[in-house]
Every structure is written in structure tokens, then in C-alpha cells.
Design a protein that fits this description.
The protein folds into two domains: 202 residues, 3-Layer(aba) Sandwich (D-Maltodextrin-Binding Protein, domain 2), CATH 3.40.190; 96 residues, Osmoprotection protein (prox), domain 2 (D-Maltodextrin-Binding Protein, domain 2). It is 39% helix and 13% strand. The chain is built from 13 helices and ten strands. A five-stranded mixed beta sheet has the order 7-6-8-5-9. The protein has a three-stranded antiparallel beta sheet with strand order 3-10-4, sandwiched between helices.
Length: 318
């Protein structure tokens, strides 16, 4: 994925850059990260005995939260290295199982849907219990934060105006409209229950076509803005929703379930002190704070590592 220190740092600072780089589909954002990690995130090498490896999926918020986790651990004197921008859950889950990653930011309900597409999501406690029961025995979830960021089907302003869709409109309102719309999202969205499969089975939606882009990142945002796609999988804490006047459709059947930010860890790789440090982060991180942090990274182009450090200091954790 990366071949030198410069490309590693640039990729890390660019939302969704790993997927973009692999597809050779866009230009990297300017700037470089403060991290000195230059390892290949897909190498699959096990961490050194005293090093906690913090990984992230290939979208901006995951990178940011990974930085928060890593810097919170460093504040306790724990040695940390980063494997950023790895890819989707389909990749990172395997790297966790084999110990290549020690800590990964996860979203509890989304993880459960990946582990068991038929699992019901009725409460935070039941979601976490069910996810833990389905996890590989070497893994566990720590405490969930109040911060929640769900997948959504979001339409652009022109589509909302054309079909009279508002913030109170639901996915069910798309049933007669969907055949006229191109839906965009990550390639994995096509095969997930919390994706096209569920949209069809739960809401009866059949879109005109699907355009594979990235995981709610710059490709998806740009395609929706330019009307290349009329609807897309956009994360609900994405600041471009407000900026571009996108409309998020309500999900009354709770297809997208719960999505509380939760550390997923390789049990033997994290000490009790590390567990306590990450649980302290979860206790302080709420949705309002997460949206503000996302805005700093995605709209103001701040280095996510700098943003993470500043928030930890303000929360008394840095």
C-alpha cells in the first residue's frame, strides 16, 4: 500500500486515502501526519511484545478515533505504533484475529451486523452482549461511548427538492423513487445487510444502479455533490451533510442499528492500564464532540493527530 515514509504520512492524513490510492482514483490532500509510523498496514506482522498497534479503517473518522486511542495510551506510558488507513472491516477483522492489530475503533451495531446479519439490535447492552458472543475468542469489545455514527442513505439537495424529501422523510419514501436513482457507497455496501441487501429486504428498495466509491469519504461526497449519484451511504456525523445541504433519510425500521464508537481489542495485547485508558476515552466522547472533531479534520483540513491530542488535553486525558 505504501512504499516510503512520505507516502505513508500523506495517506494517513487523507480521509479514505488507502482505498483511493489502491484505486489510483484521486490526488492526496496536502500536508503530512505527525505520526512516525512507516509500516505497511497490510503486512500482517505481529506487534512487538510491549507495543500496542492501533489500526484504523480507510475513512477519516476512523483515523481520527485511532489517533485518540493511541495518544490516550501513550499518555499512560504505553508504547504505541499506528497502522492507519488499512481498509474495510472485512480486512481489519482478520488482522485483529491474528494479532497484527491490537486496538481498532469499531461501531458496535455495525460490527454485530458483520458478525451476524440476522441479529436483532434492541438496545446498547444487547448489541454489545451479542457482538461479544460472536467475536473470535481472542478479541473483545471494551466500553462503548455515547458517540454514535451510523450509516445512512442520504440524498443531495437537488434530489431532495425534486422529490420533496425532507429531514422527516424515511427510507420507505424512496420505494417508488429508487428505480430512478443511482446509489453510491463503498464496494462492501453492496453485500452487507446494513447496505443494499437490507434496503431491499426491509424497505423494498431497488435502485437504478450502484456506483462503487469509498466508505463515506471524498469520492462519495463528491459524487453526491456533483449528482453523479443521487443517493449515497454517508455517515451521520459527516460535516458535509450540513455544508452541502444533503438530506439524511430516517430509518424507522432501524436497519442501520446502533453505531456507538467502541474499542475492539486483541485481548492479550492490551494491559489493564490500557483497557482503563480506552474506557476513560469512551466515557468522555459523545456525538457532539465527535462531530466537532470530524469538522476540524474534514472541513478545516487539520491533522487528525493534532486534533486528537487537543481533545484529549481538553478532556483531561492527555
Amino acid at each position: 500500500m505504501t512504499t516510503n515514509a512520505h507516502s505513508s504520512r500523506s495517506l494517513r492524513n487523507h480521509p479514505g486515502a488507502a482505498a483511493v490510492a489502491l484505486a489510483a482514483a484521486t490526488v492526496l490532500l496536502a500536508g503530512c501526519s505527525s505520526s512516525d509510523d512507516t509500516s505497511d498496514p497490510l503486512a500482517g506482522d505481529k506487534a512487538a511484545g510491549d507495543t500496542v498497534v492501533v489500526g484504523s479503517n480507510n475513512f477519516a473518522e476512523s483515523i481520527l478515533i485511532a489517533d485518540i486511542y493511541g495518544e490516550a495510551l501513550k499518555a499512560k506510558g504505553i508504547k504505541v505504533s499506528y497502522k492507519p488507513n488499512i481498509g474495510s472491516r472485512e480486512t481489519t477483522y482478520g488482522l485483529l484475529k491474528n494479532g497484527s492489530i491490537t486496538v481498532l475503533p469499531e461501531y458496535n451495531g455495525s460490527l454485530l451486523a458483520y458478525l451476524d446479519a440476522k441479529a436483532e439490535q434492541t438496545s446498547l447492552a444487547t448489541v454489545n452482549a451479542a457482538a461479544k458472543a460472536k467475536l473470535d475468542s481472542k478479541l473483545t469489545l471494551l466500553e462503548s461511548s455515547p458517540a454514535e455514527d451510523k450509516d445512512s442513505v442520504t440524498v443531495n439537495a437537488a434530489t431532495a427538492k425534486k422529490y420533496k424529501l425532507t429531514a422527516t422523510s424515511t427510507l420507505a419514501d424512496l420505494k417508488d423513487i429508487a428505480p430512478d436513482l443511482v446509489l453510491g457507497g463503498s464496494p462492501e455496501f453492496q453485500t452487507r445487510q446494513q447496505g443494499i441487501l437490507g434496503l431491499e429486504s426491509v424497505y423494498g428498495l431497488k435502485f437504478k444502479s450502484f456506483k462503487a466509491l469509498d466508505a463515506g469519504g471524498p469520492l462519495t461526497q463528491a459524487a453526491l455533490k456533483k449528482n453523479t449519484v443521487q443517493a449515497a451511504d454517508i455517515f451521520t456525523t459527516d460535516p458535509t451533510i450540513t455544508k452541502e445541504k444533503f438530506v439524511v433519510l430516517q430509518d424507522p425500521e432501524n436497519l442501520f442499528g446502533f453505531a456507538n464508537v467502541t474499542p475492539l481489542v486483541y485481548k492479550s495485547g492490551l494491559s489493564q492500564e490500557g483497557i482503563d485508558a480506552l474506557n476513560a476515552v469512551s466515557a468522555k466522547l459523545d456525538t457532539k464532540a465527535l462531530l466537532d472533531l470530524d469538522s476540524q479534520v474534514q472541513l478545516e483540513s487539520k491533522d487528525p493527530l493534532d486534533v486528537a491530542k487537543a481533545w484529549l488535553k481538553s478532556a483531561g486525558l492527555g
